[in-house]
Amino acid sequence: MSFTRDVEADRIIKGLIAINVVVFVFGLMRQVPNMGGEPVPLPMVYGSYSFEDCFDLGEYWRLITYQFVHADMGHILFNMIALWIFGRAVCSMMGAFRFLLFYLGCGVVGALFSSLLMSQGLCMREELAALSEYIPFWKMIPMVGASGSIYGVIAAAAVMFPYARVALWFPPIEMSVRTFALVVLAVALVVIAMNWNNAGGEAGHLGGMLCGFAVMGIWVLYRKLTWNRR
Questions:
Q1: What is the per-residue pLDDT for 27?
Q2: What CATH number does residue 142 fall under?
Q3: Is residue 99 part of a domain?
Q4: Membrane topology type, per the record (predicted)?
C-alpha cells in the first residue's frame, strides 16, 4: 500500500511500535518463574489479559496492557509489520487522538469477545474445560498481543481504501485491501467454527475486526447523513 506521507501518523505508529518492542525486549531480559518453575516474561505475568485477572480480581488495566505484550518474535514481527502497513493510512484519515481510541478500543472488544465465546463453550477444547474444578478454565486462559487492535485497523483500511493493493510475502500474491480483510475474516471464522488450535486467539482477532467494521459503518452512515443535510 502506498499513501501520501503523513508525519503525524508516522509518529503515532512509530510510537506504538516502539512501545511494543521495548516491552518485548524487557520481557526477554526480565523473566520470573511460573508455578511450574519455567521462566515467563515479566510483562506477560502482569500485563496479559484473562477474565479472572481482569474482572474477578479487578485488574482492569490488563484490557489495555495485554495489547502491548507478545508471545514470541514471530508474533510481534507480524503484528508490527501489519500495524506499519495499515496503521499509517488509517491514522492519517482519523487523526491521532481518534485513531488511538479506535486502536485501543478494538483491542478491548477483541479480548471481551474472546471471553464471551469461550464462556459459551466455544474456542476451547473439552479436555481443557475440565481442568479446573472450582474456577471455569476459560476464565484463566491468558491473552496477549496487538492482533485484535490491528485487525480492527485492517477493517478500517478495507472501508477507507477498499481498492488499494497490498502485496503479501507468503503466499507472494497481490490483492485489494478489501479482499485481504475478507480473507483474514474468513480464516478467523473457520478456525473458530472448527475449534482448531488458537481458536481463542482468533476469536480476539474476530472481535477486533467486527469492532472495526462496526465503527466504520457508523462513520460512513454519519458522513452520508451530514452530506445529505448540505
A1: 95
A2: 1.20.1540.10
A3: yes
A4: Multi-pass membrane protein
CB within 8 Å of 47: residues ≥ 6 apart: 23, 62, 65, 66, 68, 69, 144
In whole angstroms, give the CA distance from residue 48 to residue 215: 25
The answer to whether residues 146 and 204 touch, using CB atoms and an 8 Å cutoff, is no
Distance (Å, whole) CA 184 – CA 85: 15
Q: Where does residue 65 rank: exposed (0-12), middle (13-18), buried (19+ CB within 10 A)?
A: middle
Residue 2 in domain = no
Is 110:147 a contact under the CB 8 Å cutoff? yes
At 176-194, the pLDDT tens digits run 999 999 999 999 999 998 8
Give the burial string for 204-230 (b: 16+ CB within 10 Å, else e).
bbbbbbbbbbebbeebeeeeeeeeeee
Whether residue 68 contacts residue 103, with contact meaning beta carbons closer than 8 Å, is answered with no
Residue 66 structural domain: 7-228
Number of domains in the chain: 1
Cell for 121? Answer: 463453550
The reply to whether omega before 162 is within 30° of 0 (cis) is no
